[in-house]
Hints:
Elements: E1 2-3, E2 13-22, H1 28-40, E3 45-49, H2 64-75, E4 79-83, H3 93-110, E5 126-130, E6 148-152, E7 166-173, E8 179-186, E9 205-211, H4 220-239, E10 243-245, E11 261-268, H5 278-291, E12 296-298, E13 318-325, H6 330-335, E14 343-349, E15 356-359, E16 367-374, E17 381-382, E18 388-395, H7 402-407, E19 414-418, H8 426-440, E20 445-447, H9 450-455, H10 462-477, H11 486-506, E21 517-519, E22 526-527, E23 529-531, H12 532-548, H13 553-563, E24 570-572, E25 575-577, E26 581-583, H14 596-612, H15 616-625, E27 632-633, E28 636-641, E29 644-647, H16 654-663, H17 680-694, H18 702-708, H19 713-733, E30 741-743, E31 750-755, E32 764-767, H20 778-784, E33 786-788, H21 789-798, H22 802-815, E34 816-817, E35 820-821, E36 824-826, E37 836-838, H23 839-853
Parallel strand pairs: 2-3, 2-9, 2-10, 3-4, 5-6, 6-8, 8-9, 11-12, 11-19, 11-20, 16-18, 18-19
Antiparallel strand pairs: 1-7, 7-8, 13-14, 13-16, 14-15, 17-18, 21-22, 21-37, 23-26, 24-25, 27-28, 28-29, 30-31, 31-32, 33-36, 34-35
Amino acid sequence: MRTAAALAAPAVQQSFVVLSDVSEEVSFSHLITVLDALTERNIPVICAVSPFDAAQSPLGPASKMAQLLAGYLLAGGNIEIAPYVPELARQSAHFQARSAFEAGQSLQSMLAPLQTTGAASTPLQTIICDETANPTAPTGVRSAGIYNVLVLPKFLAPEVKGPEFHRPVQSQTWENGTVRLFGGQRVSLSSYKALPAAGDPTPTQRLFCLSAQEFSRSSPKELEVAANQFCEDLLLAELDGDLSLQPLSDLQLRNDYGFRRHISWVLVNPGSDEGALAAPFAEFQAALRAQGTAFTQVAAPLDGETEAGQPKSRLSQSQQGYWVPSDRSDAVAAQDDTWPGMIPVEIATSPTTAAVTVRTTRPLGPGVGVAFNPLQSQRTGFDRNGFLLLSRVDIRTEADLRILQDLKGGTDDLVIFIHPQSLGFAPVRRALLAGMSDLRDDGVTRVLQLDQFARFRFASDPISARRRKAESVQPELASSRKPLSSSARAALLDDARVAWRYFERFTNKTTGLCPATVNSSPGGRLHETVTMWDVGSHINGLIAATQIGLLDRKAFETRIRKILPNIAGRVSQGRRLPQGWIRTDRHRWGNKNFDGSDGGRLLASLDNLRRFGGFEDRLDELVGSWNLQEIVVDGRIHSVINEKLVSSYVSHSAHYSAIAFRRWGIAAASPYEVFQGESRTDDQMALLEMASDIGPIGAEPLLLEAMELGISPESAYLADVLYSAQLEEYRETGQLTCVSEGPIDRSPWFTYQGLQLDAATRTWATDTVGKEPEYRTPEFRENHLVVSSKSAFLWAAHQPHDYSDILLRHVREKSKTENGFSSSIFVKTGRATEAYTDLNTNGVILQAIAHRLGAAG
């Protein structure tokens, strides 16, 4: 990014007039008065137009706004329009691209009747948004043909004078050619007397900001007088040489922003019936190589055409395109800059559901489907299916050489297909070569091969890359589960007996509770306090042991009857809630705190117990005695820590907890529930961005939800993303990765481990309850990354795959002990925590085995 200081200052102030708040809610008669004043004097103005109504539905060609704009666009060339997307400055690159595409398409749809007149032939190249603190880089909008982002300042009310009345204009530019302008001066026509002073120091650029919402504060006559005076003052200032009024579309061409438009030349091979064109085609290729012009060669027939050779205006039921690789492995990316080649694909659209699928005979790695639309459709950018639509023109005959002339001085990014039938005549070939050479050397055009052209528009942030990588593995993960062989079933039953040892050996005969962890090394001890998360694992483990056949029903009920009185909870501040922790060697002895995440785990296990049967009435009474509604504030579950409510919403457990609370009739919100159902790609990106904001993702509680509650679409997708990254790690490095939360046998004794979604390279992050910085370093991660024993069993139960089998064999080999399964296996050394095991590990392993055996209800 470069700031304005790096840009050359023009001799006079480059000035733009911006009309904001143009919507169907404003007074059209007042709006017309101002637009007439500007149009009569041919003063360039850009209108920030919201292409949606109050319900966020697109305005159509029949809307009042469409008819008003059409009239002015037909009348003259001083008015530009730009889609207004208020939240753009807060959005990621992906959602910038999507917002720019959808808003631009809605605006173009409004003006569709004008396309036959040529009045709307100029593409939309500017987008307008609101100011926000810490705006994101606007790198996503270029894919939709947008070069300029105008950020409207938040002014105070017109009658208020002060710093908000005048904001110095600042400009920034990014490597992909996007320019962003901040600042400006508010011009209130309701109190207009003269142009606002330029400020000190004298700016190189000025933005005069008018608001259509403010016009109705004046009578029509008063507004007409003020608008005419404002326009006359602008012209006078221009005549005096103080400023230069310019259309915003010329911004990049009239300043040192280093603007580059992109062109990709695509040569279509002669077809099998065009043998006579082979020689001139080869001659033309050789000439292009000799003059150093980059091009891409593709096979015929080309995409997007009917039998008559007419280009289609949009994706139809079946269209040919290309799959362009977007992401390489960390190892390959570090070695060189080579990319896999494009793969021809068929893009098929369902006539009933509009769902789009990609058909190909080759496996597809991480990438993006690319399709083409004719330039006149102005349909470019990322659509709701995640496909990149590019503008194209075709050179088929000598008459099409005019396209080269039209391109001179233009700013459109464009893919130009040269068909073999245009190359049969030598003078045409020479004219093409000369025109292509001129464009390459014009100082504005950058010629790219087709895959580079497309890749330049992809969002390159880590979350987008992770989504694409996960998507490429989906066909492999969707394989159906094979029935268990008798030997596999026997092995799982043996595993269950190992896990059951923990409960047999360490259950307190009086309280029925188990210690949270057991350190059996010399000088070790039992950790005889448990959280409600631990108790939930204990209850689920008992249910699973009974389902498997390790415990009979009578013994099961005896154990449950001992546990339930210990979780009756405690009254504090007039609320009865389950306690934060309780002693396992004393009856009903614990602290006064409450943990929202652990409470969710307990409620999930009690729901499991209720469905298992035999305790329904008692459980209804128990849960009904807790004042859980009082710790759900504005839909969000809270913990109680030292008598204060503390939100547990920003947590990967919040979704799992919310579902568990709902099972008991308590409405609770989840941060994961961001799916809108309109775009699968957008939904996935919204969820990944939310999950990334929370922190690294591990197997729990994603897979606990699958075992206990039935996995939700949100958790199922995150589980696929996590699994695919673990699989990717194994295939690239040979490292076994199976991250979750759990104990280790050294300080800090308990870690949270997971995939960091927003890391530039694949990163397995670590954290602790106290979030101490020393436990987040690369050195700590390298030495303390572990394979979670319980998560290996969870993956074996949830995801049928060879990698799941490999993890399971590894845990069986390393983690079996006399006290159950050890908690973890250190990745670096391969050493298991053989003397350190815990309640959660063995309870969850029993759950997973019951699920895999089909014994779980």
